[in-house]
Amino acid sequence: MRKEFLKPKEMIHPNSRKSIAITKKAKKISNRQKAEMSCLIKQNSIGEKISWIRNNMIPGV
After folding, report:
1. Cβ(18)–Cβ(12) under 8 Å?
2. What is residue 16's DSSP assignment?
3. What CA–CA distance (Å, rounded) separates 9 from 31?
């Protein structure tokens, strides 16, 4: 992915296979990061719920 951005800027036709491949890679990376963030948010939410339950549990019940 970075190689495409580090190369000197040359005109690429918008409908070329190369531009489609670059777009596909960028979209894949973006979707992967979005999925990782949503997973982390979900895990954090569950962790907060579990810690609240531990703190508010009546001992001996």
Report:
1. yes
2. S
3. 26
CA atoms within 13 A of residue 6's CA, in its CB half-sphere: 3
Those residues with Cβ within 8 angstroms of residue 22's Cβ, 6 or more apart along the chain or in another chain? 1, 4, 12
> Does position 1 have pLDDT exceeding 60, yes or no?
no
Q: Where are the alpha helices (DSSP H) in 1-16?
A: 2-6
Tens digit of pLDDT for each residue in 29-45?
999 999 999 999 999 99
* Amino acid occupying residue 40: L
Helices (H) and strands (E) in the chain, counts: 2, 0
